[in-house]
Amino acid sequence: MIQFENVGLRYGMGPEVLRDMSFDIPKHSFQFLTGPSGAGKTTLLRLMLMALTPTRGLIRLFDRDIAVIPHRELPMLRRRVGIVFQDFRLLDHMTTYENVALPLRVRGKEEVSYRNDVIELLKWVGLGERLHVRPPVLSGGEKQRAAIARALIDQPEVLLADEPTGNVDPPMARRILSLFVELNRLGTAVVIATHDIALMDRYDARRMILTDGRLEIHE
Ligand SMILES: Nc1ncnc2c1ncn2[C@@H]1O[C@H](COP(=O)(O)OP(=O)(O)OP(=O)(O)O)[C@@H](O)[C@H]1O
């Protein structure tokens, strides 16, 4: 689903932040991406999302070499990837409901076709009472759950989540994780970047560990 072959990345003229990355994110798989702060987790997720171009090596997304994908096809491919950003990136002038519905609206879907799905999903992440408020009045954990709902609403084939439990207490972190596990059971491949060792220890999942720009994988 996502393949890296000898990928390296440097920002500008700086040192190589990631070196010799070779790995595969298989269909339906579930993995944690971990490593110390500054190890390159966000950078690696941005490469997977095609938000960054590698300095060297080959990246394939859905069996396509990303270096030669025509520009006009990028939005369609990106739509198959759900992403939860570390800083949420919700739109402050829209309600929670509108933020989550946005990917579907952008695709030209009629509201009657998705209204119930959006409400159901928001209830599922515990935001059933917060549908009509705007992000500035949501707590950090609520924003995080709204961002997760937005990433899930279009049923992505792969979900990339950057510290999705960074702003919530341990019970909510476990709830969010069980949401990802359920999503994975339904077929979505999941990659979760996290520092939270206690949370990872609760799951017998693959671990991708970044240290000093190199990757080690524990199956
Ligand atoms: N836009 C940028 N320009 C230059 N250097 C950058 C840029 N973004 C990240 N870096 C550097 O790349 C390295 C990896 O950063 P990255 O944010 O990917 O790490 P991380 O593992 O996600 O960290 P954290 O756990 O703190 O979020 C760091 O040394 C960082 O300073």
TrEMBL record:
GO terms for molecular function: ATP binding; ATP hydrolysis activity; transmembrane transporter activity. Pfam families: ABC_tran. The keyword Cell cycle applies. One of its GO terms (biological process) is cell division. It comes from the Bacteria. This is Cell division ATP-binding protein FtsE. Keywords: ATP-binding, Cell cycle, Cell division, Cell membrane, Membrane, Nucleotide-binding, Transport. Gene3D superfamilies: P-loop containing nucleotide triphosphate hydrolases. Residues 2-217 form the ABC transporter domain. Coiled coil: none annotated. One of its GO terms (cellular component) is plasma membrane. It is a peripheral membrane protein. Homodimer. Forms a membrane-associated complex with FtsX. It is found in: Cell inner membrane; Cell membrane. PROSITE patterns: ABC_TRANSPORTER_1, ABC_TRANSPORTER_2. Belongs to the ABC transporter superfamily.
